[in-house]
Amino acid sequence: MADEISVIGPGHMGTGITQVFLQVGYKVILVGRNKESLDKGAERLRTSMSKAIKKGSLNEREAEHMLNNLHLSSDYHDIENSILVMEAVSENLDIKTDVLKNAEAYVGNNSIIATNTSSIPIHKLGNGLKNRKRFLGMHFFNPVPVMKPIELIVSDETSEQAISDAKKIIDKLGKTAVMVNDYPGFIANRILMPFINEAIIALEKGAADKEGIDTIAKLGFNHPMGPLELADFIGLDVCKDIMDSIYAETGNPKFIPSDMLASLVKEGKLGRKSGEGFYTYEK
Ligand code: CAA
């Protein structure tokens, strides 16, 4: 019988994570708050699977098999046989802490509990747990089906067993685990967010127009997307939240979100998902 994994949170990251586990043969319990959020998540998953089919990384038969291995649930009792619980809910300390505590109450003692946080310190998220030895961070990158690395974030309390089990699972996904300590912003966002923020400051100060700034990064650094295009792709609210979180941890003013980023978020211009950020998008 296929090993079972639970993913809590049927949002953009949660459904991407669900897709990659299904793709390598796991049975996945996707847990959401209610039927509406689960239905939306299932729709998002089907759209992403169609893209994978178009790109040739998946065929129709595999897709059918994957959907047979997917179970939607809003009942935590259903996670009890999972070897790994992946938390992928909103990037908010209180919400995540609550979900993790709930998950611990239902899941077996030997299962790994992992968070997909992009910037909240692991030791803070683990505070509400009774057994922090099997708790760690597995930070997937967006778009999950395409991006190879996973930041494997461990605290002083994470056991060697949990680390080794998590590495085996990441190997099975065909992704690359990068061991990272519980450092503010970990590695990805510690580097990426100041880069994006600096690009926004350059735009704000009139150093170049948005296309110019993005072209320099694409042609000059061989990045697939420029920093402003990437910020829109990630979500400007997400970028701001990450900057705020790193600033709160470090107190270093270089992590203060730029005025332009803060105003765009305030105006509800969040990038691709809202139809407008630095660029405009068809919804
Ligand atoms: N399954 C599902 N979707 C797939 C797929 C697959 N196997 N393969 C491709 N796709 C999707 C792509 O995501 C893209 O989606 P959208 O329509 O939503 O843009 C679409 O299919 C087209 O893909 P293509 O490969 O044809 O297009 P492309 O060559 O333009 O590549 C891209 C798109 C992969 C997003 C590329 O532009 C890229 O690599 N961009 C940079 C992404 C990046 O830097 N991500 C890291 C963000 S930081 C992060 O994640 C950390 C954090 O905490 C914020």
Describe the structure in your own words.
The structure is a single chain. The protein is an alpha/beta fold. The protein has 2 domains: 4-181, Rossmann fold (3-Layer(aba) Sandwich); 189-266, Orthogonal Bundle (N-(1-d-carboxylethyl)-l-norvaline Dehydrogenase, domain 2), CATH 1.10.1040.10. It has 11 helices and 8 strands. The longest helix has 21 residues, at 35-55. It is globular. The chain starts with a strand and ends in a 17-residue tail after the last helix. Bound molecules: acetoacetyl-coenzyme A (CAA). Acetoacetyl-coenzyme A (CAA) is lined by residues 48, 51-52, 55, 57, 118, 141-143, 145-147, 188-189, 192, 224-225, 230, 234.
CATH class of the largest domain: Alpha Beta
Number of domains: 2
Radius of gyration: 19 Å
Give the helix proportion (percent range).
40-55%
Largest sheet properties:
8 strands, mixed
By CATH, the architecture of the largest domain is named 3-Layer(aba) Sandwich
Low-pLDDT parts are: none
Could you give the order of strands across the largest sheet? Answer: 3-2-1-4-5-6-7-8
- Specify the CATH homologous superfamily of the largest domain: NAD(P)-binding Rossmann-like Domain
Bound small molecules, by name, code or SMILES, are: acetoacetyl-coenzyme A
* Mean pLDDT reading: 96
**What's the count of strands?**
8
